[in-house]
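GDSL esterase/lipase structure dump, as promised
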Amino acid sequence: MVEVIGSIWLEAYKEFFKFYHLSIAIQVNNLLHLFSMNSSVVKAILFCIFSGVYLCSRVEAINLSKNVAVSAVFAFGGSSVDQGNNNYIETFGKANFPPYGKDFLGGIPTGRFSNGRTIADIFAKALGVKEYLPAYLDPSLQYEDLLSGVSFASGGCGYDNITARITSAIPLSIQLDYFKQYIWELKRNIGEEGAQKLITNSIFLVVASTNDLLISLPIRRILHNDIPAYVNLLVKLALDFVQEIYELGARKIAIFGAPPIGCFPAVRTIAGGELRRCKKEENEAAQLFNNILEQKLKVQSLLHSRVAFVDFYNPLISIIENPNKYGIW
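structure tokens r here:
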């Protein structure tokens, strides 16, 4: 039943995919591009993210000096942190054509689902790790690049395996396999102790859920899963993923909540009426996911770790609803 509905949804999604991701690029990544021209906005949001990772952590803080620099940045999830991995797989979800990359180096599309830098790039630079975070599957990647982190993310991925199957993205389970390959390569070159130290001192970004709520939730509802039931499933999958990367050595993890998907331009165009209003139901599903995930993360028992929930919803909805406050218009 799931496969049949999924195949039907797949055909509709193929036509919708490019517009949807371009909408995300406009809605989210163009905002990030605007942030680079508005220091008050970027400082405020990055402060919230960094304080979440370094200050609002579990009581059992890791046994590292507070002055230890971040060794590397690793990213898992979907298009928000896909640095070009989809260029090297069979999928219709690609961003290697204009207008993607129009504000990037030389205006060349790189496979980033953005007009310019992604969240992962901004994060890596702000932490002083590197200017741009590369894609793990990039064949031109050098060993030196691996030492400061990569992105395993794939546009179209979510926590739900059905999501990646529909979009032909790299599922989180395979992204984890890539990370295990990375660890093996690291140990082979710098030894087990060096690899452990590097991974312990790294920041892990997990940015998923958007595709689940936008693509798979409608399918699940057809199969008689109501919104709260599906949201609880996603939260469980998110917690399981955090547990898995923790067991592989991650100790500083930033897990992003869902954005206001009901305000994506594509959603507003398709379901927002003549005035293209934000879709209330989609935004409520995102908020429910965020509220439950944030509470569950607070009680998840991961010793000597710092796991931060990053509120991706409220900063964006505030900018969307009050653009003048941030000097955008």
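Residues 254 and 308 are 5 Å apart (CA to CA).
lmk if u need the other ones
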